Each structure stands twice: as C-alpha cells, then as structure tokens.
Amino acid sequence: MLLRKEYLSRLEIATRRSPVTALLGPRQCGKTTLARQFIEGKSAIFFDLESLPDQRRLQNPELVLGALEGLVVLDEIQSLPELFQVLRVLVDRPQYKARFLILGSASPPLVRNVSETLAGRVEFVELSGFSLAETGADAWRQLWVRGGFPRSFLAESEEDSIAWREGFIRTFLERDIPQLGISIPAAAMRRFWTMLAHYHGQTWNAAELARSMGFSDKTIRSYLDILTSTFMVRQLQPWYENVSKRQVKAPKVFFRDTGLLHSLLEIGDQHTLLGHPKVGASWEGFALEQVLQALRPSQAYYWATYGGAELDLVFLHSGKRYGMEIKFNEAPKLTPSMRTAVQTLALAHLWVLYPGEHDYPISERITVWPLARVTELVLGSCGE
Predict the structure, then answer these.
(1) Same domain, 103 and 48
(2) Prediction pTM value
(3) Quick one: average pLDDT of 203-228?
(4) For the chain, what is the domain count?
(5) How far apart are CA 31 and CA 366, in angstroms?
(6) Which pLDDT tens digit goes with each residue over 40-95?
(7) Is residue 136 located within the same domain as residue 121?
(8) Residues 154 and 264 sit within 8 Å (Cβ to Cβ)
(9) Would you say 118 and 20 are in contact if contact means Cβ atoms under 8 Å apart?
C-alpha cells in the first residue's frame, strides 16, 4: 500500500484545527487504511460502525464517547446517523478533550447530517483514488488504464484488476445504492451507468439519454445526481463570461475513475484502449482528475461557445485566471480556439496537457506541458 503523505498532512492539520474532521470519499478508496495509518503512534480509539461488537459498545453513545480523550475515529458513520446529534452535544461542552475523525461514503444522508448538525464544527477532507503524485510519474499508463482505486491499481495482473472493478460495480449497485435508502433496480442503474460511459466527456443532454432508456428527464437527472453524490461521476460546470459569443451552459459529465469507465466500456488493457473511439475522452477525464487533485481549486469549470471555441478547464489561482487544454496528441499545436480562449477569458496563462515528455511554449501565454509532470506545474509555473 502506498503511503499517502499529503492526505496524512491534511488530516494532521484538520484534526488539530477542528473538533470534527470528516474524511469523505467513495467506497474502497482507502479511507479506513488512511485513518489507521494516521492514528499510528497517537492516543486514539477506533470504532468500525459496521462491526456488530462496536455497535454494541455504542448503545449509549453519549456516555461512552463523553468519557473519551484524544482522537476518536468513527468509520462508516452513516450506519448510525443518530451519532451526529451526539457529536454536536459533546464538542460543544467547554472542557471536552476528545476530537473526532469521522469516515464515510459521500452519501446524501451523510453530507446532509454533517452539514446541518455539525455546522461550524466540522472540516471536510475529500479522499480520491491514487494520483500521479502518489504513484510516481512513470506509472501514469497503469494509473490511466486501471484507475486510482487502490485494489485495482495494485492488482498483480490486468485480469485481477478487471475482476476487482467488476466486483466493485456489482457491489455498488446491489448493496451500496440500497443502503443509501434509494430504491432503484440494479439492472436499470447499471444500464444507465453503462450508457453514461459512452457520453463521458460530453455536454449533459438529459433528453437524449431519457429517450434512449425510455425514462423521463427527471428520472435520468436523479440517476446522475446519485452517481455524482457518491463520487462516481463529476459534473464540470460551465464558465460563463459576459461576452458577445453564445456560450454553452450545460455541464460536462466525466467518470471520476477511468478504471471504472474502461470496465463499463469493456476495455481490458492499454492496447484496446488506444484503439477505442473513446480514447481521447478517456484521456481528457484522466488528465482532468489529476490536475484537480494536484491543484485542489475551490471551483473548476470548462468554457465553450456555440461557435466552436472551447477550453477544457478554467480555474482561479492567487487571484489570476488560468486555463488548461487537454490533448491526446504527441505534439500539440497552437489552435484558433486556444487563442480565442486566452483573449476572451483574459487568461494569465494556458497550459496544454499531453502524454509526451517535454514542455515547450507555442505562444506568449500558452505552453505545452507533460501530464506526468503536473506536480511540477503546480509548484512552479502557477506562481509566475
């Protein structure tokens, strides 16, 4: 297992600063492993709330938790939602000495209860799958094909990785979705998820998907929101600029993990991926997630006009506006769309991310940059 130093540092800061820290992320992304690494050498108590003995230990939670000091970890806290109110009571006591690290899937009940009950008392840390900063730049091909879920990425063979992902998808549909209190047939959700894989990287069109599946627009929208709230899918919102051009205002939809995308598209290895029609879209989604994990901007957008100008990513850094264009091309060139984006959006700089090895300028404010060196970009070029 890789040691996730950046997340450990973020947890150290958050648990010192806030009485409650919520570590959120999809199932099987490594939350429990990270929490156990974090509490090594610390005065800490760990409760697994899916464990029957630990549930019995907390039959009187205010009495039990109220007597504790140091760090208290509550894993899968959505299993006992009544604990949110107990935590609020405890952390509001003037001399209470314990601090809490709560773990759980990013389910709607979890987020809603934390936000409402623990408002002003909780700090969120979002955990994703492995990133290039953790696996090393040389592993980018494997990370792209297998995705960032630890057991998928670290599997001994491609066959083992594929088998794990298929099991994850089945468990997510048959167990995790129902546990959220959502009654959707697993077959219907799998059909939607598979169909959505073919729309990966495209602008959201509920009417088109609804016609294809024979459902209403509202039903299709609810399915998308479920996958978004559980960190399976990202909806990248459009940047709207007050300009004369007609701009696209619908979000773009991406799978957050390319390994799951490839499983649903029945792509088993890199050779198959490189010959697949969705290879460019898959690369765009992969690069997008790597950039967002490295930069962690408070907001991220894309920009597009009906005239054909577009930009894959727009974000703010230190008060300046920057852009990213993602190309699956060995030697990207300057395009009219790039020039338009720089001028129209007044970008301080635009980077063109690609799978090559060398960086080179193609215009005064436009630089081609290798995705494998995205961490260097964050540490250096953004501060120019």
Answers:
(1) yes
(2) 0.91
(3) 91
(4) 2
(5) 38
(6) 989 899 999 989 999 999 999 999 999 999 999 999 887 788 899 999 999 999 88
(7) no
(8) no
(9) yes
